[in-house]
Amino acid sequence: MNSICDILERNAQEWPRDVALVEINPQELENRRTTWREYSLIESSPIEAFRSEMTWSDFNLKANRFANFLLSRGFKKGDKVAILLMNCLEWLPIYFGILKAGCLAVPLNFRYTADEIKYCLELADADALVFGPEFIGRVEQIIDLVPRLKIRLYVGDDCPSFAESYRNLVSYASSRTPTISLTPEDDAAIYFSSGTTGFPKAIVLQHKCLIHSCKVEQAHHGQKKEDCFLCIPPLYHTGAKMHWFGSFLVGGKSVLLKGVKPEWILRAVSEEHCTIVWLLVPWAQDILDAIERGDVKLDEYELAQWRLMHIGAQPVPPSLIKRWKGVFPNHDYDTNYGLSESTGPGAVHLGIENIDHVGAIGVAGFGWQTKIVCSDGVTPVERGKVGELALKGPGVMKEYYKNPAATKEILKEGGWLLTGDMAEERDGFIYLVDRAKDVIITGGENLYPVQIEDYLRANPAIKDVAVIGLADSRLGEIAAAIISIKEGCTLTEQQVNDFCLGLPRYKRPRKIIFAEVPRNPTGKIEKPKLREQYGATALVAKQNEVAAN
């Protein structure tokens, strides 16, 4: 296999009429009392606005057309094409069309501001931008400030004057497979780091990285042709797309659900006969809370075929999985760990057979090696000690684009990738302790916020929590807990403090803040935003308090 595009070609040849992708927009039926399938049978219903699908043959032909369009416009191997779209049926054919042309796909975060879009387009040397209607305003602000862009393609109706219509142009291109020679070593895509620790870096992944990611996902979760994968997270991120890769590898159907309400997720599983669902922690919590409140009733759904629920992108509270297994005792469960620099999830995974080790991120994934190293980034720590997790395998990125200094910091001798995550090994399993940059040093003691967060999440009134360090004139830093309370529950600062008596004194939060916990689209807590929001205020208040005394 020379490129990941070979898998798409094979799927189109072996299963041309089988459904590859389904897009569901449940907002269209928000006020209708009918099942999605019943709605599709109503002759006058605008079903294309709610549910649409694509076969493997159509998928491949659309990818070919976009590739040939790019080539007809003078694009060549190594050029970069940025994608700024919400999840939709066009997303993946556009992605694979870019790859088939020998170009690099550059997916952009749909939450980026206009300035961030400009920053990433310039950083990646993007030669084209494909964008959707949700981004017209943001793109219009910066489009003339990025002169390198040779093409601005708009996916949707009512094309703005500063762009060209994707559908009008690409529909006339040849549907034949382009004759572009690709190898596993060729660059395939540029992804951006999440930006939770500063400006995002541009991560270069090769075709061999993407191919290995397909194999990893299928090896871990045993996807078969008859499985159906429910994809909810944004496709611009490696987490969603690389989990989809397992279904892609075996030619299985996948459903793109545009919404995260518990009833929408359960209806999609029920009516599309989904067997595998990847959730973020907040979504799993919302489903369980909705069931407990009686907002959704499980006997109204067909869920017997649902065999696997897995979670990634963030630490998973053991209490959540205990609750989940109480409601869905027949579900297999797995958690996956990875980062964009390792081509997404699967470098470490728990494994469905290791449910008794919930709380660990697991063991080295298929084709991966792991070690926990000292601050020098090379020397392994003593067994049982905390250190930085390092990974080695075919999914390790090639480099940070145009940033050799940052590349040198993270890629070490022998092909090892430093993750920036603090971890420890116990009984053969790896436990994530925290991000190295999130460690709080208070009075000379290291505090790992994830450990405190896991403890607090066991409180039945707490929906979500984030622990950050705030500057303190005496201790250097103190731990502050930002707590989101479950709907229908009450909680006071004193009750939180009493609950924390089970923690060692130095680990107890010194400040309690009741507020929503901000998370990015992949479920990671946006701690820099919290530190910016609460840090300066807290420091000034502390200084005033000291001055007054």
Task: Summarize the model shown.
The protein has 549 residues and is an alpha/beta fold.
Structural topology:
Elements: H1 5-14, E1 19-24, H2 36-41, H3 47-50, E2 51-55, H4 56-72, E3 80-84, H5 91-100, E4 104-107, H6 114-123, E5 128-131, H7 136-142, E6 151-154, E7 164-165, H8 166-170, E8 187-192, E9 202-206, H9 207-221, E10 228-231, H10 238-250, E11 253-257, H11 262-272, E12 276-279, H12 281-293, E13 308-312, H13 318-327, E14 332-339, E15 344-349, E16 363-364, E17 369-373, E18 387-392, E19 399-400, H14 404-410, E20 411-412, E21 416-426, E22 429-435, E23 440-442, E24 445-447, H15 449-457, E25 462-472, E26 476-485, H16 493-499, E27 511-514, H17 527-548
Helix pairs in contact: 1-4, 4-5, 6-7, 9-10, 12-13
Quick tags:
32% helix, single chain, Luciferase, domain 3, 549 residues, globular, 9-stranded mixed beta sheet, Rossmann fold, GMP Synthetase, Chain A, domain 3, alpha/beta
What would you note in describing this structure?
The chain has 549 residues and is of the alpha/beta class. Among the domains are: 1-29 and 51-206, ANL, N-terminal domain (Rossmann fold), CATH 3.40.50.12780; 370-435, Luciferase, Domain 3 (Luciferase, domain 3); 439-548, ANL, C-terminal domain (GMP Synthetase, Chain A, domain 3, 2-Layer Sandwich). It is 32% helix and 25% strand. It is built from 17 helices and 27 strands. Strands 2-1-11-10-12-13-14-15-16 form a nine-stranded mixed beta sheet, sandwiched between helices. The chain has a five-stranded parallel beta sheet with strand order 4-3-5-6-7. Strand 10 (228-231), helix 10 and strand 11 form a beta-alpha-beta unit. Helix 1 packs across helix 4 and helix 9 packs across helix 10. The radius of gyration is 24 Å and the shape is globular. It starts with a helix and ends with a helix. Mean pLDDT is 89; it is low at 536-549.
